[in-house]
Every structure is written in C-alpha cells, then in structure tokens.
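Hey, I'm writing a tutorial for new members on how sequence and structure tokens pair up, and I'd like a real worked example in the thread rather than a made-up one. If someone can provide the structure for the chain below, I'll link this post from the tutorial.
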Amino acid sequence: MGVLELAEIELVADDDYEVVSGGGFEKRAIKLSSDPDDLFSDEIELKVIKTANSPGGMDGGTEFPVRELVLPFNLYDMGDGIEATISRFRKLWRPGRAIQWRVTTGYSGLRWLWLKRSAGIQFSPKRDWNLDGYAKATVTAVALEPNYESPQFEVKGTNPSSGTNTLWFPAWNPTDQKAWPAWDFDPKGQASLFTWPDFSFGNEQEIDVSWTPGQHAARSIKTPDNDPFPRITKQWSVMSDPRMDTYVAADLSNAPGQMGGVEPMYWIPPYTGSSGSPIMLPVTVSGPAGIEVKLTLRRFWSAESGLE
C-alpha cells in the first residue's frame, strides 16, 4: 500500500497540531503506534442511565451511546530533548480540553471527533526515557459527540419578490445516522412569516405507536403570524435536533414562548435521497424581497470511513 493510500490522522487544538499517522514517512515528535501489541480502540458502547423504581431486569433507564478511544502514541526527541515532547504532549491533552481527532481517507474523505481525556496519561518507558529519547504514552478519551462528523451540507434561498413565495431546498442524507434539519430565517429587519417542513418520512410510530405511518407526511410549522405574537423582524435559528435549543432569536427574545410549545419532531432518515436525486423541502416565505432562508444538515457517521 502506498503512502497516499494510508489514512491520515491529525490531532488539532487551538494552539497545536500534529499529523500522528499517515501523511508521509518523515520523523515526527508524536506518532500513533502501529505496533500490533498496542491497543487501539474507538468502539461505541451504550451506557444506561438508571431511573428510580426499576428493580430486577426491568428496563428502567435510558441508553446513551458513548465512544471511548484508547490511543497509544510513540513520543520522540526532536532535538530539544524527550522531556520537551512529553511536556508538549501533556499540554495537548491537558484536563478539560477538547481536541479534534481528524481522520482523512481516500474513500470517505474527512471525518472527525471532538475528544476529552477521561483518565490519566499512562507512560510506559522500558527505561529512563532520557536515555533512549523515546517514550510510549496511552491516552483514554471520550468523544463529546459519539459519531464521527463530516463537512455539513448547506443551501440558501432568497425571496425573489415581495409577497408570498415558496422556496425549494434540495436535501439528502447519505449517512447511517439521522439527519436533523437546522433552519435559519433572516427577515432583514422587516416583519416576515416563514413556514417550513417537518416531514415524518413514515417515522410517526417511533414517537407515538398510536400514530399512523404517513400521518405527518406533510407536517409544517410556521413562525408567529400575529396570532397573538407579531411576525418576526430579527433572525431566528431553528434546530430540529432534540439535544439543541430549538428556537433562538438573534435579539435573545423569548422565541420558544412565542411558538406556544410547537416543536419540530422529525429527522431525515439514513440513506434518504442522493445528490443526484435529492428530496425537495418547501419553505414558504411571506415578506419583502431579499429575505433569506438557510438549511443546514450536519453529517454524522458511526465509523471513521465507509458506510456510504
């Protein structure tokens, strides 16, 4: 296998950067170990948060995916002494810091995780590292988001003329994870109304088993329309992902209160649509020419490559 076919793995922090695997054969201060006796693991496990009153084998908790990485590194003296490399490595992985773990492959391109160290760094020199100019270090870290992320998809639309118009947004989800639409509505300071889709894609019964599949196939939500709150004049962000704050107004006004408890519920399922045959999402805008809408879809994957 040629060097250009190897996965390139990078550690990226706000004040440091290192290619720790792939990307050429030059000597580096910090390298991910390729020794088969070393353990490299990045599997996802399900952790159960227990609730009260769940005796015996009853399912009384909620499962959360957790990805823990065990990363073995080789550290080398690059001319300033091995202590300088170890100091740099410790600073890179200092407690409480988030660091980006970036994996680039020829097959799938760039994907990344954000990591925080979850245990002490384990050093294992065979003898005093100052004698050999070398040390081995193992880091255990937890991913803040358990799935790998790749560059997000964005598309914008602009109201072509004053009045009510429908803008169509192409979208697709090529991943093995749910894609939660995020919308940005910019009324440019003018009172405007935005109505956006919250299509179910047949997933009603994942939320409520009493619902009929397809019942919400054409579901939509709108911003306030003088009912009783006035139309918006400031930019709003709408996040469908239930882990996020759903409604955020640029002026920090009470956007959730103005929506009266109406929330987006649905996601774009894995492997829905494609770049050549996207699904089309309609947004109806009412207001002056030039008001804007942006759709953002973050891409998440359960592995660092493949699954397309």
